[in-house]
Write a structure and sequence with these properties.
single chain, 188 residues, mainly beta, six-stranded antiparallel β-sheet, five-stranded antiparallel β-sheet, 53% strand
Length: 188
């Protein structure tokens, strides 16, 4: 199915130069002179090679039909992540690089959707937000206002996130899985 380049989103599977690519990141660039274009970081899901490609916003690209299946994350063994299909109970493994940075948010039993192209898993879509505990938070600097300042905090999965001054170690917060940003304090 042909789509315009400005409709490309992370997680999509594209066919380009006879190979199948998983879109990792996109960036819309609007130079001072000339037309806007899309900078797309992609990974060939067969070989694992990464590339960057640029398209004008009006260009068309081939989007592959993807079968989306409901799955559940089970466990990690080294760099291999094991998932189970909810309907058939079939288990399969995916390399951590296929999931990318959001793999740090995977929790045992977490429901996810996995995209399959030609029977092979090519990408994993996590829930938009996840609840994590803050294990370490810097002290509040006197004189900072609560509305405009954030401080670094360390989550239970080892990632750093900028949190508001009122959040302390031991607090459970909601974190956006796509950009690792603080959303709100978790309701217990």
């Amino acid at each position: 199915m042909k789509i315009q380049a400005n409709q490309i989103r992370p997680g999509m599977i594209l066919e380009h130069q006879g190979r199948q690519w998983s879109v990792l990141k996109i960036q819309l660039i609007q130079p001072g002179k000339g037309g806007a274009f899309i900078q797309v970081e992609m990974r060939d899901f067969r070989t694992g090679n990464k590339t960057n490609e640029r398209w004008r916003t009006a260009d068309t690209v081939e989007k592959l039909l993807v079968e989306e299946r409901d799955c559940q994350y089970l466990f990690a063994e080294g760099d291999q992540l094991t998932f189970m299909e909810v309907e058939t109970f079939d288990q399969f493994t995916i390399h951590r690089d296929v999931v990318g940075e959001p793999a740090a948010f995977l929790q045992d039993g977490m429901p996810v959707t996995v995209d399959f192209v030609e029977g092979a898993p090519v990408s994993v879509n996590l829930p938009p937000t996840v609840v994590m505990a803050v294990v370490e938070a810097d002290a509040v600097v006197k004189g900072q206002t609560a509305s405009s300042s954030y401080k670094p905090g360390l989550l239970e999965n080892g990632l750093r996130v900028m949190i508001p001054p009122f959040v302390e170690a031991g607090t459970r917060i909601v974190v956006n899985t796509s950009d690792c940003s603080y959303v709100e304090r978790a309701k217990d």
